[in-house]
């Protein structure tokens, strides 16, 4: 019995040793394969990705003439409510509402019978006094009249002449003429109507030229210059741009609003505009600011505000002939956007190369390459 147990015991240990070696071989094989896989992943991760193709443009320096926005109203170059200095009954109306008339055109005549009679009487007295004066002058040569009598009669002639002038002025006031050429409004009186001094007969406006009145805040006072040009729009012609020229402004600001009142002149010979229209104004400032012009598509937004991607050239490695560009994000201060071009006040310098498309897929330090369709930037500010 003891001899059989001793022969079985070595066989069990051999079996256990065999199983252990088998398991160790399997574990080693799996570990070796896993190590190879990890090394392959590491090698793949260390491989440099190919550069991303981007379109670019070059920043160009320019001087930007800023524009100031304002609102204003159109005012007639000349405009009056035609009225009368004297009271009376209207006997004649020689115009129709809306007529275009010339300066000096007779508009309305009042009843003038009394004034005509006064004028005739004054003329008769003048004629009588002149005749008497002539007789006295003939008698003077014969020494039949005193010099004092002749002087008195000459004074009477002057008085009569003055009375004729007064009567003529009174008669002229019964006729109302156009003080300047222009367009009449709606007639406010009728034949036979009694009018008193100050009553409105009709409105007369000169429309070949118009005034454009507007205000600017105190901070914009140094944007003004003589003969400064401006553009404006009115709601009647939303697609049309009109021009005007600054004529004058008040040298003193309004003490309540701290605004400066400005008046510009508008050429309205085509008759498209009318007094009272509301104008949306864009004024060319006399101040010029240095800017860098880039395509508007190069501007994107991040958490800090507006930015651009700039290409920075890296030192070339040995054997590499292609330029190595890396992206760098720069925050910029954009002054304006107009016709696809943005004006940048800070953040760029002349000849910086900026990315013009696909910024959402990019990030700083990314390798990029330039493709052929490069955006063009105008050489001047429009």
Structure characterization notes:
The chain is of the alpha+beta class. Helices cover 26% and strands 40% of the residues. The protein is built from 3 helices and 21 strands. The protein has helices spanning 2-45, 113-141, 147-172, and strands spanning 52-54, 56-58, 60-82, 88-93, 100-101, 106-110, 175-177, 182-184, 194-195, 202-217, 229-234, 237-249, 259-267, 278-295, 300-302, 305-314, 324-331, 333-338, 341-346, 353-355, 367-370. The chain has a 6-stranded antiparallel barrel with strand order 3-10-13-12-11-14. A hairpin with a 2-residue loop joins strand 11 (229-234) and strand 12 (237-249). Helix 2 (113-141) packs antiparallel against helix 3. The termini are far apart. The model has no long low-confidence stretch (mean pLDDT 84).
Which keywords apply here?
382 residues; alpha+beta; 6-stranded antiparallel barrel; 5-stranded mixed sheet; 26% helix; rod-shaped
Summarize the entry for a quick read.
By secondary structure, this protein is α+β, with helices and mostly antiparallel strands. It contains three helices and 21 strands. The protein is rod-shaped.
